[in-house]
Design brief:
10 helices; five-stranded parallel sheet
Length: about 260
C-alpha cells in the first residue's frame, strides 16, 4: 500500500509539472501535446533561451509498425529511461525501438564513436541498415565543458546541422532532447548546469531554424533525485521516461496506436 501511495504521489507531481509546462496528457495513456508556445520548453531561469515556437517545430507523426532509433549518452545507455521508452513505444505499436547509446559521448566529445560524417561510420551505417522512421537524439550534455562558450556556437551549430542533414537524408524524422538538469558544482564554484545551459541555447537556436522539434529536458528533470548530481536514480529515470511519454512524445505515442 505504501508503494502504491508513493507511486501515486510521483504520478501526481509529474502530472502537475507537465500541466505547468503546457502538456495535458494523462500519464500512462496516449495524449495530445500542446501547440508550440513559449511556456512549453523555456528554461526555468531568466538566463535561458526564450524558446520561440519555431524551436519546437512540428512534432513528427509515425504509424504503427514504425522503427524508432534512440541515440544518446550515459543517460540512455542501459538506463530505465531508454528501456521504459522502448517498452512503451513498442507496446503502442512500434515495430522496434533500437537504442544506440554510449557514456561520455557528445557531438564533439569522443565524436569518433559516431563518425557522423563517415558513410561507413556507426550512425550512417545504422540508419542505412535499420531504416528508422524516427530518430530521437539525446546528445549534448557531454559537450558542456568544451563547447559552452559563445565563440564555439557557430561550429557547434554546424555540427548539429550535419546530424540533422544526415538523419533527414536517410528519410528519417528527428526529435532532439536537450541536456538534462545537473545540480553539480564545479571546484571553481561554477554550477555545471550553467555550462549545460549554453549547450541548450546552441542547440535550440539551430534546431529552431531547421524546424526540428527540440525539447528542454531541464524542465522535466530539475526536481528528480540524482545519484551524483548529473545522473539519476533508477526511479528518477523511470519518472523522466514517463514525463517524456506523456509530454513531448505523446504525439508519437498516439500516432503509433
Amino acid at each position: 500500500l505504501r508503494a502504491a501511495r508513493h507511486n501515486f504521489a510521483q504520478w501526481d507531481r509529474s502530472k502537475a509539472l507537465l500541466a505547468e509546462k503546457g502538456y495535458t496528457a494523462e500519464p500512462g495513456a496516449p495524449g495530445s501535446e500542446p501547440a508550440p508556445s513559449p511556456s512549453c520548453d523555456q528554461a526555468s531561469n531568466a538566463s535561458g533561451p526564450s524558446a520561440p515556437g519555431a524551436s519546437e517545430g512540428s512534432a513528427p507523426r509515425v504509424s504503427g509498425g514504425s522503427r524508432i532509433l534512440l541515440i544518446g549518452d550515459s543517460q540512455m545507455a542501459g538506463t530505465s529511461l531508454s528501456q521504459e521508452i522502448k517498452r512503451d513505444l513498442e507496446k503502442q505499436g512500434a515495430q522496434e525501438v533500437k537504442i544506440l547509446a554510449k557514456p561520455t559521448r557528445g557531438l564533439f566529445v569522443k565524436a569518433g564513436f559516431w563518425s557522423i560524417e563517415d558513410s561507413g561510420g556507426l550512425v550512417q551505417t545504422t540508419l542505412k541498415n535499420f531504416k528508422p522512421n524516427l530518430v530521437i537524439v539525446g546528445l549534448g550534455g557531454n559537450d558542456s565543458y568544451t563547447m559552452w562558450h559563445d565563440n564555439k556556437r557557430e561550429i557547434y551549430e554546424a555540427r548539429v546541422r550535419k546530424w540533422v542533414n544526415v538523419i533527414q537524408g536517410a528519410s528519417s524524422q528527428v526529435i532532439w532532447l536537450g541536456p538534462s538538469h545537473s545540480s553539480k558544482i564545479e571546484p571553481s564554484g561554477t554550477p555545471y548546469d550553467r555550462l549545460r545551459q549554453k549547450i541548450r541555447e546552441h542547440q535550440q537556436g539551430v534546431l529552431g531554424s531547421l524546424s526540428v522539434p527540440w525539447y528542454n529536458m531541464k524542465n522535466l528533470t530539475e526536481d528528480l533525485e540524482k545519484s551524483d548530481g548529473t545522473h539519476f536514480t533508477r526511479s528518477s529515470y523511470r519518472q523522466w521516461a514517463q514525463r517524456l511519454l506523456d509530454g513531448p512524445l505523446s504525439g508519437v505515442r498516439s500516432s503509433l496506436s
